[in-house]
Amino acid sequence: MSHRLPVERIVQPAILHCTPDTPLCEAAARMAERQCSSILIMRDGEPVGIWTERDALAVDFSDHSATRVAIREVMSSPVACIHAGTELGEAAMRFRSENRRHFLVIDARGNPEGVLSQTDVALNQGMEAYLRLREVGAAMRSTPLVLEADVLLSAVARRMREMERDAAVIRFAEGDLGIVTERDLVRFIANHPGDTPIGTLASRPLLTVSVDDMLIHARDLLMDHKVRHLAVLDDEGRVTGLLGFRDMLAGTEQVYLKDLRRALEQRDQALAQSRQHLQLAERVIDSSLEGIIITDDQARIEFVNPAFTHLTGYTLEEVAGRTPAVLSSGRHPPTFYQEMWTTLQEQGYWRGEIWNRRKGGELYLELLTITAITDDESKTTNYAGLFTDITHIRENERQVRQLAYYDPLTRLPNRRLLDDRLSLAVRHAHRHRQRLAVLFIDLDHFKQVNDTLGHAVGDELLLSVAERLRDNLREDDTLARLGGDEFIALLPDLHEVDEATRATQRLIGAISQPYVIDSHDFRVGCSVGLSFYPDDGGNADELIRAADAAMYRAKEEGRNTYRLYAPEMDTRVRSQLALETALRDTAETGNGLSVHYQPIFDRESGALHSAEALLRWTHPERGPVSPGEFIPLAERSGLIIPLGRAVMRMVCTQLKAWQQAGLDPVPVAINLSARQFWQGDLLNDLKAMLKGCELDPRLMSFELTESTLMHDTDRGISTLQRLRDLGCKVAIDDFGTGYSSLTYLQQLPVTTLKIDRSFVSDLGTCRKGGCAIVAAVSGLARELELKVVAEGVETDAQLSALQQYGVPLVQGFKTGRPAAGEDFAAAYLRGSAGAPRLSD
Predict the structure, then answer these.
(1) Any idea which GO molecular function terms this record carries (predicted)?
(2) Closest of 69, 21, 11, 58 to residue 41, by C-alpha
């Protein structure tokens, strides 16, 4: 059978279609004329439904108006689709498993290529060998629907639908037989015969075959006479069944299932025979306490013994046919396995220790021996593996190493273990071209604590320091104690130097917090030196020496601080500090700050709806600084609050200037950071600015992210309500990117949801995730009576898709780029009567 033939090779490219408003009788007439079993309903070039011969069974022929309804009222939707490259065998299985008769064939872009029916599959699967060997009785339906000739058409359709039959045999008084099929019902819908006795409409005589005839003979009859059904007669001439292409297709699948079952039985028989020859060896293997695994020459598992199941948790049934990679722990690099197999192929065996993973996820260490088994011609036919779990042996060794590699007071790694880990981390960083940092940490004035409060307090202080350091490091970082009050922290897998400096600041801040030990309340600081691989050294000793030197420089320059060993890295940190200083000066004076405004349009009317205020900063020496650089810096340094006040002040001043110029400004939205939202003077500052500029509060709106409200939802709702009571509108920005909760969303006194640009970018593409979220947010907003703004609209395709999902407001480079106040006014604020539109 041609199971691998793609369906695009057999489907007819011409698609019979109509519009949703087409009367059912007219659509049926087209199907009857073209002798098609289905018709596709299209709207604006997109398939929205399908009506098939099977749907004709649902028509009430006793109701004259039932055949004149618009086809959209009776069509099936959505349309089941299948890709053009799907193999014929898979298509046949889908017809059977999904109980369908038609699939719309689509190409890689989702464009319709044709309609595939069960008959198409039956005619193209190359079933001749099967049909020549099997009789009609093996495939027919043995319970045909037989009706008398005086039964009305409406009753026939109803009985066919209830019994799920695609044809009914009609018996006439004189003894001959006729037939009515789903295709006949389509023709009746087109011709309006009324609810007449079926005898006047049935096709006769009915072609018949004997139960003993070969299926190939029945297939030839169906094709020669261009019919779909044959009546099956027994030896006495009685109708015992019906036979059609659909029955042949189902019968074929049954044959393949039997063939598959036979193949599995043959495999089991072969395995049983093999076991008989190796019975003695298997008894030895089964009683062995060591795990044994046997694979074929391609490393596919064929046999495991009970000890393997006991040690790994996997039974033979679970691993047969798979490779030993099912046990892989993920601890070894690919080169480990490459070297293993190279040795095995060159020497015929391999022996070593390897980490594997049990079925339950537990790691274990095994001592493994693999041997290649060859035939008389020295060709490898199998591999045999013998292994023992040595985890407990290594655990005992670990306890011994604990005494040699860990600090007895803090239980942290000591200098010896640190050297091992640092050397390993250096090799890993070199292999993956990554950076790592070494932090040399020395407590300030620790000797004074020891001398004045005693060594017991000093030991407790070291334990507290070690705990604070551990709590502020990542899980993959290493913290070691060199002795006395000196600690080393190893930070691998760094992408930038700032990660290490930020971690250092956290550590200094944590250690500087007060300590209360044995009723003694005191503080200590620490000096930290940083070195980086590969910048400051190529091995463990060089990196530690560099960090140690940097630590002493930190002590010399004031203590309770940190220094970098590399001058160029120190310069970078100082550059960041200088940028923060310049931003702080700018926040205080306002020099270099400006606000640009991006328009928001009503998509349907094209009218200007509002604008969003976007802060810009021009450094006195560097020039324009990206918001992506200075906004996070402002957040970290706490400057975001004065910058936020400056934005509100500049927006109020601009709105007042537009009004004084005789323009009709639109509302302007201001982004609120989390810190600005939660600071207590927000409402008072806003009221003072509005009053000072004599502005209507409705000209001001605010945007904040979902995560801003997660800290204290009740207090956040109260603040939002006060903004609303003042007359300002409130929008949730980047909606959908946070942990949205419908419970609190319906409680929020907001007016607008802004769909994040990441979802808008999916519109007009093959990615469906963003489309689904846009549709969901739009529907949710309508139910909650909220407005929706789509951010980041950049293409015509996105703009067109937003119309489909009913998103009323759009913002992005496609509709308008951010502009300074004067440019924005010139482009968009020409008075309400002459305001520009989206099409401009």
Answers:
(1) catalytic activity
(2) 21
Cα angle for residues 664, 667, 672 (degrees, 5° grid): 150
- What integer pLDDT is reported at residue 1 of this predicted model? 44
- Kindly list the distances between the CA atom of residue 737 and the CA atoms of 716, 734, 830, in Å, as whole numbers in the listed order: 19, 6, 36
Are β-strands 562-564 and 809-810 bridged in parallel, bridged antiparallel, or unpaired? unpaired
| pLDDT (tens digit per residue) in 764-775 | 676 666 688 888
CATH class of 600-611+640-828: alpha beta
- From the options 3.20.20.70, 3.30.70.270, 3.40.1710.10, 3.30.40.10, give the CATH code of 406-565: 3.30.70.270
3-state DSSP helix/strand/coil percent for the chain, to nearest 5?
45, 25, 30
Across 387-413, average pLDDT: 85
Which of 297, 282, 294, 289 is CA-nearest to residue 320? 294
- Gap between the terminal Cα atoms of the chain: 61
Residues in a beta bridge with 233: 210, 239
Closest CA to 687 of 697, 679, 673, 678: 697
What SS3 class is residue 194? Answer: coil
Q: Which fold has domain 7-126?
A: CBS-domain (3.10.580)
Q: In CATH terms, are 7-126 and 283-394 the same topology?
A: no
Residue 833 has pLDDT above 50, yes or no: no
Q: Is 538 exposed, middle or buried (0-12, 13-18, 19+ CB in 10 A)?
A: exposed
Q: Beta 291-296 vs 301-304: how paired, if at all? A: antiparallel
Domain ranges of the chain: 7-126, 133-253, 283-394, 406-565, 600-611+640-828
Contact (CB, 8 A) for 102 and 52? yes
Q: Write out the DSSP string of 637-672.
A: HTTHHHHHHHHHHHHHHHHHHHHHTT--PPPEEEEP
Across 89-161, where does the E strand assignment appear? 102-106, 112-117, 146-148
pTM, to two decimals: 0.41
Q: 133-253 adopts what CATH topology?
A: CBS-domain (3.10.580)
Given a contact cutoff of 8 angstroms between Cβ atoms, the answer to whether 597 and 668 are in contact is yes
- Cα–Cα distances in Å, from 211 out to 133, 169, 236, 356? 14, 17, 11, 61
pLDDT digits (tens, 9 = 90+) for 217-259: 888 887 787 777 888 888 777 788 888 777 776 656 566 556 5
Structure tokens at 651: 């927006």
Residues 794-809: pLDDT tens digits? Answer: 988 888 888 888 899 9
